Amino acid sequence: MSMNSERLLELTGLEAGAIRSAVEYAYDTLDLIDAELIARGSEPISGLVELANLSSMIGNLVGAGVAEASGGLYVRNRPHAFPDLVPQREDLPDLEVKTALETNSPKGHLPKEGVYLTFRYALGGPNSEYTRGKDSRGRTAWVWEVRVGYLGLADFSISNTDGDSGKTAVIKTEAFKTMPVVLFDPRFFPYARAWGGLSASSVALE
Predict the structure, then answer these.
(1) Is 176 helix (H, G, I), strand (E, B) or coil?
(2) Residues 6+ apart with CB under 8 A from 95
(3) Distance (Å, rounded) from C-alpha 186 to C-alpha 146?
(4) What is the rounded distance in angstroms from the CA atom of residue 21 to the CA atom of residue 114?
(5) What is the pLDDT of residue 160?
(6) Burial group, residue 98, by CB count within 10 angstroms (0-12, 13-18, 19+)
(7) Which of 7, 95, 126, 159 has the most CB within a 10 Å radius?
């Protein structure tokens, strides 16, 4: 379900549909990769790479998807360069894209002030099945939450979290909670109880 579309447009110039399209772009690409791997007798990509690399891969895919769906407002930057998405109009901001697994907080290499799109995903089954808990993880990535917001240097802390991209600048929990949610899929909600105003039963899918 899309939410806070006006705030998304104000901060980034993007319509809510661009975020949904970016997520579908990532899904379609991962499906193609998995189909080829399975046809060769292999596991899906999520079973072949570390979770840190999977998070990074998903970040690259949703970033490419945002650029493709932006109608020319943004283009992808070269790998490992700031910002992730380069604006093509002077009135638009540099845009960073960060990902995190389940309840982890998104993070980057170094604290950078600016506008962020954060994507959090869970691992479930290929037919949208999902059971909360590390021991119940599936092989298919499903984005359960996307947030947008402006972050300053004070909104980051230095830490390392298993299962993410191996970077060190983590968005602080309180700052992260203030970022408006622009997409939420309660089917893959990984918390045991409400978090940041969201719960698996609080929002119905469109």
Answers:
(1) helix
(2) 12, 66, 74, 83, 84, 85, 87, 114, 115, 116, 117
(3) 12
(4) 23
(5) 57
(6) buried
(7) 95
Contact by Cβ (8 Å): 74, 86:
yes
Tell which phi-psi region holds residue 6, choosing left (phi > 0), alpha (psi between -120 and 50) or beta: alpha
pLDDT digits (tens, 9 = 90+) for 144-183: 999 999 999 999 997 655 555 445 799 999 999 999 999 9
CB 116 within 8 Å of CB 103: no
| Chain mean position to CA 65 | 11
Within 10 Å of residue 14's Cβ, how many Cβ atoms? Answer: 24
Question: What are the structure tokens assigned to 94, written together?
Answer: 């540099």
* Predicted pLDDT at 206: 34
Q: What is the pLDDT of residues 20-31, one digit of tens each?
A: 999 999 999 999
Q: Which of 163, 157, 206 is nearest to 186 (CA)?
A: 206
Query: Rounded to whole angstroms, how far apart are CA atoms 72 and 75?
Result: 7
